[in-house]
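Whiteboard transcription, Tuesday session. T.W. wrote the structure tokens on the left side:
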């Protein structure tokens, strides 16, 4: 029996460099990458820069940086779509010659006059009336010499067979199952613009075929383009790839996630101190599941990922859950890793920011504070408050002052404690607790005041941990400063 040839999976991520990498696009890239890794296939990258006005080099480098940050590297050299402009034009000319496309000389003004003004967002789609197709009698005959000098676009002639007219187009999506479109939803769309650049729907088909893409995995917002692309594949005699449309990420209101819902670009999350692995873990789980497991190593994701387990419904972006996932990764990272990540991801060099502290004191402080932080930035903020002198607000001081008379003596006695050298937290704890017993004050009463005196904050790591990190001499000077300032509230 002849064995069936199993084709190697080849997928691609094809961002347009018209903005920063959106977390929804990162999720598409991740799904493609995981699908390729899971199946032993190839993951490719294509920069779709044919919209010359909106594409910018800085966005291309930003996209590539964000992908590299997440460890998503391509298995072949990156393709820059505009470099294939001549090939796109050549193929479109061949289609004109074959009668599957035609030149359209209609100006915007003529279209407005004949078909009404181009529709506003949300309005009816204005369909082209095939004026130039009819005038060329369905061939590529150019009607007059003058026509060759006029600017023109090339339009694709969508198939007009009875089958298309009656049942429209049906394709089987790996995530959504059979998807149906009516043919009358579409018109003869432009494939080459008057500036000679290909449109998205045309370039994507020509280049996916050129790159031997077997599966197109992308956001559901492209579903409406798929019938056009399938017709193009058929007209060009190319093999149609398998499509998988991923549901969109929704904001809390159930609408497509937008800037209004907070940070949406991968770079924003990086700058806020989310870890690449945590962000990727969270995004993959958003819309894909594997039992109840939430935290995955990259190897586990590769082993368990499948398109079948991607849900059909849009998934709501939940910042609380992302914070939790990030906190899990932060807790699992060593102080050394966090120091490196602060440097590479948020541009903070701990040794420069805390020059008076030794490397081991910085590491110890990180080890303590990371247990209660969701992001790298929060870690830095916590350490800043240990390292820097506190800035009290009058409002807080005066609020604390109300019960202060009870504790004043105790704080004075704590200030009077002497230690021969900097000690560890157990030594401070023992001595301070002895003072508290003497003053008949509980930790519950004293801690808020001590915390505010040492850090100008109302919550932090344990008081004795703070003292050990800050050091006794510095703690004494902060407590003294606090007393001087709180007295002014009287
Ligand atoms: N350039 C398109 C985008 O950024 C790619 C769509 C596709 O994957 O076909 O949305």
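and on the right, the sequence the group agreed on:
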């Amino acid at each position: 029996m002849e064995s069936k040839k199993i084709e190697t999976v080849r997928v691609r991520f094809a961002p347009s460099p018209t903005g920063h990498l959106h977390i929804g696009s990162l999720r598409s890239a991740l799904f493609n990458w995981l699908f390729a890794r899971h199946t032993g296939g190839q993951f490719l990258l294509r920069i779709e820069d044919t919209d010359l006005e909106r594409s910018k080099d800085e966005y291309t480098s930003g996209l590539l940086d964000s992908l590299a940050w997440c460890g998503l590297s391509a298995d072949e050299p990156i393709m820059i779509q505009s470099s294939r402009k001549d090939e796109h034009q050549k193929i479109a000319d061949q289609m004109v010659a074959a009668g599957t496309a035609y030149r359209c000389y209609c100006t915007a003004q003529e279209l407005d006059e004949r078909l009404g003004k181009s529709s506003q967002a949300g309005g009816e789609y204005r369909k082209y009336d095939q004026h130039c197709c009819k005038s060329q009698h369905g061939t590529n005959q150019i009607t007059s010499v003058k026509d060759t000098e006029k600017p023109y676009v090339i339009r694709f002639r969508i198939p007009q067979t009875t089958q298309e007219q009656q049942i429209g187009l049906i394709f089987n999506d790996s995530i959504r199952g059979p998807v149906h479109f009516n043919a009358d939803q579409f018109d003869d769309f432009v494939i080459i613009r008057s500036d000679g650049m290909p449109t998205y729907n045309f370039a994507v088909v020509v280049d996916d075929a050129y790159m031997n893409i077997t599966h197109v995995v992308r956001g559901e917002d492209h579903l409406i383009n798929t019938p056009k692309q399938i017709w193009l594949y058929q007209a060009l005699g190319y093999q149609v790839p398998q499509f998988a449309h991923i549901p969109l990420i929704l904001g809390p209101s159930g609408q497509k996630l937008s800037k209004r819902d907070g940070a949406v670009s991968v770079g924003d999350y990086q700058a806020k101190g989310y870890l690449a692995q945590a962000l990727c873990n969270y995004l993959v789980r958003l819309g894909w599941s594997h039992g109840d497991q939430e935290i995955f190593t990259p190897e586990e994701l590769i082993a368990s990922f499948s398109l079948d387990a991607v849900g059909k419904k849009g998934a709501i972006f939940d910042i609380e859950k992302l914070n939790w996932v990030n906190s899990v990764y932060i807790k699992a990272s060593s102080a050394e890793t966090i120091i490196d990540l602060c440097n590479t991801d948020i541009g903070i060099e701990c040794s420069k920011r805390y020059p008076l502290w030794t490397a081991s004191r910085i590491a110890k402080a990180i080890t303590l504070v990371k247990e209660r932080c969701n992001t790298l930035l929060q870690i830095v903020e916590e350490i800043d408050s240990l390292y820097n002198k506190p800035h009290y607000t009058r409002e807080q001081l005066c609020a604390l002052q109300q019960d202060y008379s009870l504790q004043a003596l105790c704080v004075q006695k704590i200030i009077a404690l002497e230690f021969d050298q900097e000690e560890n937290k157990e030594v401070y704890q023992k001595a301070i607790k002895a003072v508290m017993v003497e003053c008949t004050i509980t930790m519950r009463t004293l801690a808020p005041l001590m915390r505010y005196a040492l850090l100008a904050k109302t919550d932090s790591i344990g008081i004795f941990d703070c003292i050990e990190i800050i050091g006794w001499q510095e703690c004494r000077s902060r407590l003294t400063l606090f007393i001087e300032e709180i007295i002014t509230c009287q």
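Someone added at the bottom: The chain is about 50% helix and 10% strand.
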